[in-house]
């Protein structure tokens, strides 16, 4: 039985890049590793509708924090069994974004803290009702909002397929989301957290693998 680790952070924090580093480092330690990313755009209707809403489609859907959170939660629900089996069969299972992202973004949008109603609702919905496994550990990439947004803007400038959505373009929201993530870290929301970046983050997590 391995461990399930959620990698969290703002858009542009480098989550995809660090997942690649994990795969390389784990191979060097002879660890078995697998990973997935949320939202699962292109393979989930819920994820695709959420993305379309954040690019101006579907009327006022994106104005509801709860509606958007529900779409992202329904997307993850499809993966519950896969995640349980992956943790059984691998030393390390990584999620590029997981349930904490729903909690952080929803709390930031509604101006609530880690003990607010929407954070409790997200946990109950995804872990209890949908049966998603609770992560053994969570990693927050400690990249400040201004740096993450600059990276996301640069990425969008060279890749039309990665145009920034309404969340990514909102500097104030990104700052509030980062604060929400730090609040979740401070309260050790659902499991222990590590705040780190780059190689330090990789080594910190790999050292947790039995």
Automatic annotation (TrEMBL):
GO MF terms here are: dTMP kinase activity
Q: Which CDD domains match?
A: TMPK (cd01672)
Q: Which UniProt keywords are given for this protein, alphabetically ordered?
A: ATP-binding, Kinase, Nucleotide biosynthesis, Nucleotide-binding, Transferase
Q: Does the keyword DNA repair apply?
A: no
Q: Domain Thymidylate kinase-like: where? A: 7-190
Database matches in InterPro entries: P-loop_NTPase, Thymidylate_kin-like_dom, Thymidylate_kin_CS
Name the EC number(s): 2.7.4.9
* PROSITE patterns named among the record's database cross-references: THYMIDYLATE_KINASE (PS01331)
PANTHER family linked to this entry:
THYMIDYLATE KINASE, UMP-CMP KINASE 2, MITOCHONDRIAL
Family the UniProt entry places it in:
Belongs to the thymidylate kinase family.
Q: What is this protein called?
A: Thymidylate kinase
């Amino acid at each position: 039985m391995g461990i399930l680790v959620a990698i969290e952070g703002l858009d542009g924090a480098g989550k995809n890049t660090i997942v690649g580093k994990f795969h390389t480092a784990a191979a060097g330690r002879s660890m078995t590793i697998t990973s997935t990313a949320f939202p699962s755009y292109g393979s989930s209707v819920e994820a695709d509708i959420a993305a379309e809403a954040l690019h101006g489609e579907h009327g006022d859907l994106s104005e509801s924090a709860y509606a958007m959170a529900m779409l992202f939660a329904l997307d993850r629900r499809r993966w519950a069994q896969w995640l349980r089996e992956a943790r059984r069969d691998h030393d390390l299972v990584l999620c590029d974004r997981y349930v904490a992202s729903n909690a952080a973004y929803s709390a930031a949008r509604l101006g609530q803290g880690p003990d607010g109603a929407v954070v409790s609702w997200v946990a109950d919905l995804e872990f209890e009702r949908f049966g998603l496994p609770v992560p053994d550990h969570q990693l927050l990439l400690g990249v400040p909002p201004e740096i993450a947004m600059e990276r996301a803007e640069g990425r969008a400038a060279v890749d039309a397929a990665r145009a920034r959505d309404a969340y990514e373009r909102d500097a104030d929201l990104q700052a509030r989301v980062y604060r929400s993530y730090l609040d979740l870290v401070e309260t050790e929301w659902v499991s222990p957290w590590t705040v780190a970046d780059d190689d330090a983050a990789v080594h910190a997590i790999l050292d947790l693998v039995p």
